[in-house]
Amino acid sequence: MDDTWKAGHYIFFPVVLLVRAILYAMHHGGGFMAKILVTCARSPAAIHLGRLLHASGHTVILADTKRFHLGRWRSWPSKCMRHPSPRHQAREFSHWLQEVVKTESIDCVIPVYEETFHHALNHGTLECDHFCSDIATLDRLHNKFEFIQLAKSIGINVPETVLVENIAQVKSALTADHVLKPVYSRFGENVIMKPNLSGVSIDVSKEKPWVLQERLEGKQYCLQGICKDGRVLSSVAYSSDFTVSKSSVFFERTGKGDLGGIIEKIASNCNFTGFLSFDVILGKDGTVRPIECNPRATSALHLYSTHDNIDDAVLRGQAIQCTGISRRLVLPMWINLASNLFKKNHFKSWRKARKRSKSVEWNILDPRPGLMQLISLLGFAVVALRNRISLIAATTHEFEWNGR
User: Fold this and answer.
1) pLDDT tens digits for 212-260?
2) I need a labelling partner for 298 at 20 to 30 A (CA). Which of 11, 42, 77, 112 fits?
3) How much is the pTM?
4) Quick check: 175 and 183 in contact, CB under 8 A?
5) What is the CB-side half-sphere exposure of residue 282 using CA atoms within 13 A?
6) CA dist., res. 176 & res. 196, Å (int)
7) Is 149 helix (H, G, I), strand (E, B) or coil?
């Protein structure tokens, strides 16, 4: 019985692959099947992107600094690779990147999260397409003061933002209407929404500057664009209704797309290639103002479906739509509920959001990726304890970017 099943499986599986390849070629006019390297395999968004690319007929290799990441125990990656820490072993990472492109005959390299900045250091040096911009562009956008200055210079309405380089500057300029945050930060880490005016204590210096930013009233949205050579090929916006530590854990398309045309204005000005993301505030008067830029992918990638053909945008520079269903991070959503249990009407909204969304990481038919997430979490906890940093900071410790 087992031998019969195995024989049938080995005959049927190649047929499925052949039919998929034929259908894909018909849809794309006979376009080639690419071999793609997707990095930051620890992130759910990178796994979702890799799955979409695989479903479109491409060969996908996943890579990360960790041996155990969310890409393990999945059937679709052709290979999972491990590389040196881009942050702590920059030269070794650069060498690895150059070599893997050659030895694996890679057609396109797609960085996803914070490692994008270290890829940008190697921009223009690979013998294949590299879906990112140069480091000068990315650093200017990632720097929370420089970005605001750039946006203001091209006519985008921005909140008042002041650069501070010592504690005396902070205390003299800080008011109750300010938000205080480091020039380089991520995931809302170290952001002080309601600073103590009489006793603010932060590690601020010329080497580690902060910004005082006007606190805006209104609804916050997260925007993401897929860009190539300054053109916005797709855009999507989701609201921040459910968060943990200031990071969204529920993702749902709002239909607003590129709010205020901010993605298009910045992408065009910078001739941007890659994923381009923003946190913006939509005021009651309809004014849209960006508060910061993330020149990398975000969880908005989860909102794309296999039918959207995201490979058309990344590989071919074609405009596409975003039509995927709502998604949620399971454990963080429960943490959100626990944190807001006594907030009026929160449970009702939470329950409705849970019912109309699908889990990002859990699948009852294949629980192994969910188990791998727990293993990864333990690994990040060890990194956090060893380096005396927060758990969320530990997730990007090997490749975060804080300027040159």
Assistant:
1) 999 999 999 999 999 999 999 999 999 888 988 778 899 999 878 888 9
2) 77
3) 0.86
4) no
5) 18
6) 8
7) helix
